[in-house]
Amino acid sequence: MILLRRLLGDVLRRQRQRQGRTLREVSSSARVSLGYLSEVERGQKEASSELLSAICDALDVRMSELMREVSDELSLAELAQSTAASEPVSVPVRPMLNSVSMASVTGGPERVTIKAPAEAVNVVAA
After folding, report:
1. Burial 12-22 (b: 16+ CB within 10 A, else e)
2. How many CB atoms lie within 10 A of CB 63?
3. SS3 for 1?
4. 41 Cβ partners below 8 Å, 6+ apart?
5. Do the beta carbons of residue 73 and residue 7 sit within 8 Å?
6. pTM more than 0.85
7. CB 3.0–4.6 Å: which of 15, 89, 111, 125 could bond 82 by disulfide?
8. 24-75 pLDDT per residue, tens
9. Strands of 120-125's sheet, edge to edge?
10. Beta partners for residue 115, in sequence order
11. Where are the beta strands (DSSP E) in 1-126?
12. How far apart are the C-alpha atoms of 20 and 47, rounded to whole Å?
């Protein structure tokens, strides 16, 4: 089962770590307890929209950017889950992607490389 709170927490943690900031710094800036922010990052607590807004402000990240990254993570998790269950799933390609390239090996799986602004993701179709 894919837990949205876990994906959201992972994205928040990565955003914070990219900035080289500590939990203490962000919790103080967002006016959220250190323990609660830690639980949100670990996917143990559901964050309200007000709390997410405060955390995004503290990280100087737009909530739409945060949600877009969570959405992309969710798409990949669903793809991985459906591949494991052998169910085909269509994955939308966002216009913000830098490039998409496909290579096919005769008799082998197709490989799709999606290059996003921050990082590249490889997806192998069965």
Report:
1. bbebbeeeeee
2. 13
3. coil
4. 9, 10, 12, 13, 16, 23
5. yes
6. no
7. 89
8. 999 999 999 999 999 999 999 999 999 999 999 999 999 999 999 999 999 9
9. 99-104, 110-115, 120-125
10. 99, 120
11. 99-104, 110-115, 120-125
12. 22
Reading the block at residue 53, the tokens are 């807004």
What is the CB neighbour count within 10 angstroms for residue 73? Answer: 19
What residues does 124 pair with on adjacent strands?
111
- Give the single-character DSSP code of 62: -
Would you call 92 exposed, middle or buried from its count of C-beta atoms within 10 A (0-12, 13-18, 19+)? exposed
Extract the tokens encoding 55: 């955390």
Six-digit token string for 41: 């990052």
Cβ atoms of 81 and 2 within 8 Å: the answer is yes
CA distance 126 to 96: 26
